[in-house]
């Protein structure tokens, strides 16, 4: 059975690192990787293929740097050409990026069944670009692999046939378990950044709602600078945030801004932080995987169980910097409940098993 996997953005490489290695062990599965090019910098793409042992993409479409509509449209056109040539049994997409939607639409138009990994996530806000991508992808997918009960309920509420939904756990948890030992032995990021374990906060900010207007980005940068008066803050800056900081003339004095790091360094930075400040979906979960308290700088989160279990609080950026900084500083070292939220680390195996059962020759 040939599976064409569409990927293009950093979190998709990490998810694929867990799933593709299981596919590679199955004699009945031949996986073809189609990289849209959405993320293209060495440290946003290549490093993940290299250090996580993902096979080189068979197709690289080189599409990036366009508006959402233009990018999704160009990807749709180019993915369709590749799929018409390959005629795969199935198209597999991850998460909620423009690459996800373009892959799903291209497959749907060619009547190729679609499997969606990380289905059913909802922020209940149509102004978030990812929300549109995930809702549309879920509604054209034939098989929906969900990480949690909440995700199942969201899909059922939207009228998706229960027979298409398979709760397998979270492939990002698989990835964390797979690569943590390697990260501990290979990464020297703490030494390079002269950071002591449990002595710093880790920040990641990249969502358009936080970076795309001078007001919102300035607010977050001021907040991080204010926190950095009390505790070291290290921030691997996403290219979007970096571009916007330069455009808006924002300079950071106290916060340690570094280039985006590879996944192994990221695991080490997360694992040893005393608190994580983020607007990333993946990083919120990883904070919990490493049992590090997390503050989400957004008005909402898709990963509601983290909030319910006390591992995460949602704190929308506001102009009251002092209040924000105090709330965040108080949050460090407060742990949540010891529960198992995202499966057993065998999501990728379940995915391979179910796909082989349903679509195998
Ligand atoms: N990540 C990384 N290096 C970094 C920042 C993040 O490897 O400098 C990883 C992180 O560990 C997580 C994923 O990238 O696995 C999250 O991606 P991102 O925040 O870009 O997207 P989101 O999860 O919000 O879709």
Helical stretch tally: 16
Spatially, the strands of the biggest sheet line up as 3-2-1-4-5-6-7
Shape: globular
β-strand percent reads 5-15%
Please compute the radius of gyration using only Cα atoms: 20 Å
| Largest β sheet strand count, sense and barrel closure | 7 strands, parallel
Order of helices and strands: EHEHEHEHEHEHEHHEHHEHEHEHEHEHH
Describe the structure.
By secondary structure, the protein is of the alpha/beta class. The chain contains 16 helices and 13 strands. Helix 1 (10-24) crosses helix 7, helix 1 crosses helix 16 and helix 10 packs across helix 15. Bound molecules: uridine-5'-diphosphate. Uridine-5'-diphosphate is lined by residues 10-11, 14, 204, 206, 236, 260-263, 266, 280-283, 286. Uridine-5'-diphosphate (UDP) binds at residues 10-11, 14, 204, 206, 236, 260-263, 266, 280-283, 286.
């Amino acid at each position: 059975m040939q599976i064409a996997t569409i990927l293009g953005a950093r979190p998709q490489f990490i998810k694929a690192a867990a799933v593709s290695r299981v596919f590679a062990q199955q004699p009945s599965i031949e996986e073809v990787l189609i990289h849209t090019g959405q993320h293209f910098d060495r440290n946003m793409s290549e490093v993940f293929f290299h250090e996580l042992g993902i096979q080189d993409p068979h197709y690289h479409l080189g599409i990036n740097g366009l508006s959402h509509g233009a990018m999704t449209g160009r990807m749709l056109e180019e993915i369709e050409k590749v799929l018409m040539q390959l005629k795969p049994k199935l198209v597999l997409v991850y998460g909620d990026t423009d690459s996800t939607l373009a892959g799903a639409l291209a497959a749907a138009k060619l009547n190729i069944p679609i499997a969606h990994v990380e289905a059913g996530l909802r922020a209940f806000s149509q102004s978030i670009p990812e929300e549109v991508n995930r809702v549309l992808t879920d509604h054209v997918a034939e098989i929906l692999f969900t990480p949690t009960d909440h995700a199942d309920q969201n899909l059922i509420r939207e009228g998706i046939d229960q027979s298409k939904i398979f709760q397998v756990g979270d492939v990002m948890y698989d990835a964390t378990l797979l690569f943590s030992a390697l990260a501990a032995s290979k990464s020297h990021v703490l030494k390079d950044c002269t950071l002591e374990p449990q002595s710093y906060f880790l920040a990641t900010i990249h969502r358009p709602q936080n970076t795309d207007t001078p007001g919102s980005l300035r607010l977050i940068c001021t907040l991080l600078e204010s926190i950095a008066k009390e505790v070291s803050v290290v921030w691997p800056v996403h290219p979007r945030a970096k571009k916007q900081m330069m455009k808006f003339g924002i300079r950071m004095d106290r916060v340690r801004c570094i280039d985006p790091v590879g996944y192994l360094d990221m695991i080490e930075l997360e694992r040893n932080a005393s608190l994580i400040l983020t607007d990333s979906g993946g990083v919120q979960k990883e904070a919990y995987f490493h049992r590090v308290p997390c503050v989400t700088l957004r008005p909402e989160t898709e990963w509601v169980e983290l909030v319910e279990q006390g591992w995460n609080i949602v704190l929308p950026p506001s102009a009251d910097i002092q209040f924000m900084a105090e709330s965040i500083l108080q949050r460090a070292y407060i742990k949540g409940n010891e529960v198992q939220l995202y499966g057993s680390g065998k999501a990728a195996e379940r995915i391979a098993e179910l796909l082989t059962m349903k679509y195998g020759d």
